[in-house]
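Per reviewer request, we include the raw input and output of the structure prediction for the construct analysed in the revised manuscript.
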Amino acid sequence: MKIVISCGGTGGHFFPGLALAREAGNANARLLLSGIHADAQKKIAESYAIEALALPPMPIWKRHFFSFLRGLAQGYATARNSLRENPPDAVIGMGSFASLPILLAARKLHIPVFLHDGNARIGKANRILSRHAKLLGIAFPAVNVCHCPILECGMPVRQELIAQTSLSREEALAKIKEIFGVAFSADAPILLVFGGSQGAAAINACVPAALAQYGKKEVQVIHLTGVGKLDAVREAYRNLPNVHLLQETTSEMAPLLAAADLVISRSGGSTVAELALFGKPAVLIPYPYAAENHQTDNARYYENSGAGNVLLQSELTPETLTERLRFYLDDEVQRKSAFAKAKALARPRAAADFLAAVAEKIN
């Protein structure tokens, strides 16, 4: 089966698309990339020997309407030519309006269209495009409706991460020491904190204050601050007795997730899927400005499954976060229960299951 995957825009749409392409095999998949990050994403795809084509820029329509229309027209023409020259068996759209020119071209050429959505709330672009799709794969149970059949298959996640979900605590700690030069004790709890690729000022400010209130120096901390935020967070940890590792960001998430006893993070679709893969109890603080508040829906799914707890940013204070630290870190039985419930949500075969469903629909 030959497929074209339409993705772009944010990493939350691109990286699951890349995971699907890698699962399909380099010879069977190519990426058509739209959005303002297309050129950078093309380089990432090509580093995995996956063919990729960057379409003309198409900025967010609400901010640059006429530039959006120009990019849509140019992207449609480029995508149509590419699909006509090398027609695939199916085109898969990974959500966002960045996929619009490719999927419109596929429909014009009568190529079957499939969609995937990485959030519990199906996005506006996918809801519109679902009228012309054979199937929509979703990462979590959907809280709203669309106009085509739905398959709850999970979120495609990069193969390297899935391969490391079996890391033991000791193996994870050894990798952390090797990569970052920090030796954590296997006998004390580890708290992992991150706010997404850009970090989160509210989380960065609140976590050190909550740790000070919590007052248990044996808790060890790994905190990813986001680019440009390291110095301010380092200052906040200066007077805390807790052993800590502070980094702006890292591509080595697997040992950090494997070692953590509790995670504090945002609740993007990929993040929630990765937490489930590693079975991590989590305090989820949804990004309050996410489109249609979709991160809150993701977080509620995790919470309702018993795997974590939702703390809205409007309610985030050192006091409310300290309560969550006590709830999980002071109660090993609670942590073990959340671990088992998180693991039950894991979908390591998401990419393979979705591609199998696509193949079945076109045969």
